[in-house]
């Protein structure tokens, strides 16, 4: 079992760049670059870049 320790949370500094999207029917594709860092307390901030891809689907659920 993994327990989360919220008494000393990580510092999160993330932003996005070069976001592009394309929608087709009931889906959308989003691509871009994530820039920033997630740093544990007391550690050196190491900012990095990573490519992101997200796929979003339109879902129609009765009752929502």
Record keyword descriptors for this entry.
mainly beta; 0% helix; 3 strands; 64 residues; 3-stranded antiparallel sheet
Question: What does the model show?
Answer:
By secondary structure, the chain is an all-beta fold. It has no helices and 3 strands. It has a 3-stranded antiparallel β-sheet with strand order 1-2-3, with no helix packed on it.
In short:
By secondary structure, the protein is mainly β.
**Sheet having the most strands:** 3 strands, antiparallel
In quaternary terms, these chains amount to single chain
Spans of 5+ residues with little confidence (pLDDT < 50)?
none
Gyration radius (Cα, Å) is 17 Å
Please give the count of helices: 0
How far is the first residue's CA from the last residue's CA? 33 Å
List the helices and strands and how they pair.
Elements: E1 11-24, E2 27-39, E3 48-57
